[in-house]
Write the structure tokens for this entry.
Amino acid sequence: MSSPISLTFLGAAGTVTGSKHLLEAGGRRILIDCGLFQGLKALRLRNWEPFAVDPASIAAVILTHAHLDHCGYLPRLVAAGFRGRIFCTPGTKDLCSLVLPDAAHIQEEDARQANRHGYTKHAPALPLFTTTDAARALTHLQPVGYNRPIPLWGQAGDSHLPVTYQAGDSHPTVEFINAGHLLGSAYARVRVGDRTILFGGDLGRYGRPVLPDPTPVADADVLLLESTYGDRVHEVDDNGDRLATIVNETATRGGKLIIPSFAIGRVEEVLYWLRRLEDQKRIPVLPVYVDSPMAAAALKFYSGRANELDPEMTTGQRHVCAFCTTRMVTVASPQQSKDLTASRQPAIVISSSGMATGGRVLHHLEAAITSAKNTVLFVGYQAAGTRGRTLVDGGTEIKLHGRVLPVSARIERIDSMSAHADASEIMRWLSGFSRPPRMTYLVHGEPAALQALASRIATERGWPVHIAAHHERVEFP
Ligand SMILES: [Zn+2]
């Protein structure tokens, strides 16, 4: 007889950030994803709440990928007493080694700025976690290649486990399957006894450059599915036409094109398209600045793991410098970044963060947003409450570094570069299942998207489907 399995949704339930799913089986706790809440203040405040269970009681963590909304809470979890292994793919480990210290640095810097300028109600303002916390969290990462189920415990060195292993228990296993959403991204297939739970993480897209298609999966007893674009279909791929138009129009006005971009993932695709448009002589050869040390480091990891990317990336010329445009410059020092910010020369600047919530892009926006010559182009999802969302929703002013500035620059967005499957792509992926899961839980979406996807799955596939609520606990059917 198999023991009950339960799942508690500790994040990304009814919203798109803070992914954390607590699996409890046979007296053990496994946390799948450990993400930060981002966006609206009410959500961000959740990062400061005590964790729902004692972190020391969690036996293992499994990460689907290295985006902060899936891994960014790890430093806090480790600081609060988690001692186990954090299982992930080697690509995820690489990218975590960039994003966690960077997030810690931003936290520390924000706290310092808030204290210096006194724009805080807290005295003193504290970082959510420090660079030391991030470094400690990284030492827990346990890389595992794709398609190799491995036991979550039972190996030497597991003496930290809070509950003694009982003879007769079967070890749960985890297997990572390429999700095509980011370098190293995966679905985590967890097997407990005779049951299979598939944590979908974030689902990639079909027929896109750089990343491979999401791997088909034939079955699972329980499925957790993201719903970010559950109510939307991405604009059809236009072979770079819109991007070419935006680049050409901005160049004609003699302006700068600022592209806020997630430092990992999106930068690669933006560069891929810019290079392709240059090769095809559809845009002028402009200086392209990658003003994000993390993006520059991530480019190296992408190039080093080209075998995990779209097959196109390992053929011909691309193998040599997979992402370089003709006049690409990676901006290293803060001084170089300042010079670039001050420069009025036509150029393309790719800088993070992707939703303009922090990072060097804020300085570029501050310098560029008040001139109609310039363009700001968003290429990723813009969560509610972020500056990016305000701008794409047509906001006429924006607050940057404590100053309110009028928005005169042209604001554009291209959704086709999204890394998330849209509603039709999600349905396409589900059509690969040879039998319906006994239950599909929808997570990682805003309410309208969750509702729309739930009704599509129910009507088109006839599957039982449930929208997860924050802190809801379910036992498996
Ligand atoms: Zn993601």
